[in-house]
Fold:
Amino acid sequence: MDCTKIPARPQKENAMPQNRYIKSPLNYTGGKYRLLDRILPAFPRDYCRFVDLFAGGFNVGINVDAPVIYANDQITYLIGLYEFFRGTPAETILGLIRERIAEYELSDQNTEGYLALRREYNRTGRPIDLFVLTCYSFNHQIRFNQKHEFNIPFGRNRSAYNPSIEANLVRFVEALQQKDIRFSTRDFLSFDFSVLQPGDLVYCDPPYLISNGSYNDGRRGFKDWTPLEDRQLLDLLDELDRGGIRFALSNVFVHKGMTNEELIRWSQRYHVQRLEQNYANCSYHAKDRSGNTQEVLITNYLPPLSGE
Structure:
């Protein structure tokens, strides 16, 4: 593919600062929307293909202006929902949401209506029902059990479909339908990297080894995240680097008193940019670290705005 023949999506002019990024309508664990103003400026300016290898809520990938964007996640239901959004007019989606809300009399008070829709979704797997469930689930979260059943409890008195969710959904759907986004549901080791050429960019936001998120506890019907997967990902990034493929890895060095020493050692050969400002300036190699989270972006290229 010749990138010079594929026009990049034009930037919008005069956008208000708070609206310059598209926000995923899904509250996915580990979502990076709040860090986009640190992550996106650190991406190179001249790549053709972008891979969001652990797409999750897809906050990063949906905001990239690459001619071709690959969105991959092993959670097949997420990718199925995005494909449904891409193939369905926004007004149709909104109509279906309103129909489901009316049919099940959904509100932030109606537990039985929520549970009835949850049973229906686990029986049929309709993507629109999954989205509606996230609007009323506890903290708008997504979680499945070993049987691949959606099992988040009801968000009584705190979760409901609202104008903010609807506005985010419409912008998200419009972007999905305007951009060249290619979906896949492979394990990260099985992704077809042969579609890339030197200079392309792979972004990784994997489960964090030293966190305790439900997405990496091995009890959700999908592959868990252990020290083995962590090492395999680092080896994969080394391999991409040798092939001239650029990468950016989101991760944490320190979290709640735990430290990923192997990640810190591995990162020394690349460029490290700190993404959080809620911890003191301290050496990553010092033994006396604070208990604050140290979230970083590790790249095999010099970020344009890194200041290094």
Observations:
- Confidence is low (pLDDT under 50) at residues 4-17, 214-220, 277-289.
- Helices lie at 36-39, 76-86, 90-103, 111-124, 127-136, 163-178, 227-242, 261-267.
- The first strand starts at residue 49 and ends at 52.
- DSSP finds eight helices and eight strands in the chain.
